[in-house]
Design a protein that fits this description.
The chain is an alpha+beta fold. The protein has 4 helices and 6 strands, in the order E-H-E-H-E-H-E-E-H-E. Helices cover about 30% and strands about 25% of the residues. The longest helix has 15 residues.
Length: about 120
């Protein structure tokens, strides 16, 4: 387990529920902008030793499918990954504006969809 103050290391796995289609990412980013003032998407990132099952369980991800990346891969594409709320929740900032190009670039950071090891 971790805390909100733990840094998100580049080696840390980052898990997002769903297929991460561009339109879905843009809708999520728009909701975040209305709520928090900046576009972003939720992911669950652990420590380098955290497994996908650990993150899915802690994040209570209901989706049948998930996609997995690392914080380093997301940062390499020009995004910021920061802890927000209860561990292991994080936000990938898509500022200044989320558009189709940035949503596509973000989706490309993640592996192919895989079955959620702990669907609700």
């Amino acid at each position: 387990m971790g805390s909100e103050n733990d840094p998100v290391l580049d080696e840390a796995l980052c898990v997002r529920g769903g297929l991460m289609g561009v339109s879905s990412l843009l809708k999520s980013a728009a909701r975040a902008k209305r709520r928090e003032g900046a576009p972003g998407i939720s992911v669950f990132c652990g420590h380098p030793e955290s497994t996908v099952a650990d993150l899915v369980g802690a994040g209570d991800i209901p989706h049948r499918q998930i996609r997995v990346s690392t914080a380093g891969a997301i940062r390499s594409a020009g995004f910021t990954v920061r802890r927000q709320g209860r561990w292991p929740h994080c936000t990938v900032d898509m500022s200044p504006e989320a558009d189709e190009a940035s949503a596509s670039r973000l989706a490309a950071c993640f592996g192919e969809p895989e079955l959620n090891p702990r669907p609700r």
